[in-house]
Design a protein that fits this description.
Layout (H helix, E strand, L loop, with lengths): L1 H9 E5 L7 E3 L6 H22 L1 H16 L3 H7 L16 E4 L6 E5 L1 H9 L4 H20 L1
Antiparallel strand pairs: 1-2, 3-4
C-alpha cells in the first residue's frame, strides 16, 4: 500500500505532451521515458563539450585538418612556422593560415589571416594584384603632388 501511494503522488495522470504515451511527472510535465531521453542527451552534450574543450582534442583536430586537407605532417607545419612572421605584411599573427593554390592544391606557405584572405579576394591572380598596386601608387602620387 505504501509503494502504491508513492507512485500516485509522483504522477499526474495526464498523458505526456511530447509522446502522449505514458503518465507524466507532476514537477516537470515530462513522462518517464522523455525524462530519461532528456537526461541522456544533456549528459552526452556536457561530456561532448568537455571533450571538445580539452587541449588534447584541439591538438588532434588541428593535426587531422593539416594532414587530410593539405597533406602536411606536424613536423612540416612546425618547420613552416619557424619564421613566425607573415612574409607579405611582416606582421606577427597569433595564428597562421595555410596558403594553398586552389587549382593544384599545393601548399605555398603560411600567411596571416588578412593576407591569405586578400590573396583569395584578388582571385590569386598576379595581374589583378599588379593592377591594384598600380592603382594605389597612382593614387599616392596624386595625393603627394597636391
Amino acid at each position: 500500500m505504501v509503494a502504491l501511494n508513492i507512485v500516485m503522488n509522483s504522477y499526474d495522470g495526464k498523458p505526456c505532451k511530447k509522446c502522449n504515451a505514458t503518465l507524466r511527472y507532476k514537477s516537470n510535465n515530462a513522462c518517464v521515458s522523455c525524462e530519461r531521453k532528456r537526461c541522456r542527451s544533456t549528459n552526452y552534450k556536457q561530456q561532448h563539450k568537455q571533450h571538445q574543450s580539452s587541449d588534447d582534442y584541439k591538438k588532434r583536430r588541428r593535426e587531422y585538418k593539416y594532414r587530410y586537407l593539405y597533406g602536411l605532417s606536424t613536423e612540416e607545419m612546425f618547420s613552416m612556422r619557424q619564421s613566425s612572421i607573415c612574409p607579405i605584411c611582416l606582421a606577427k599573427p597569433k595564428r597562421f593560415c595555410v596558403d594553398h593554390d586552389h587549382q593544384t592544391g599545393k601548399v605555398r606557405g603560411l600567411l596571416c589571416y588578412r593576407c591569405n584572405t586578400g590573396l583569395g579576394l584578388f582571385l590569386e591572380n598576379p595581374d589583378v594584384l599588379k593592377r591594384a598596386v598600380y592603382y594605389l601608387e597612382k593614387e599616392r602620387a596624386t595625393q603627394n603632388s597636391e
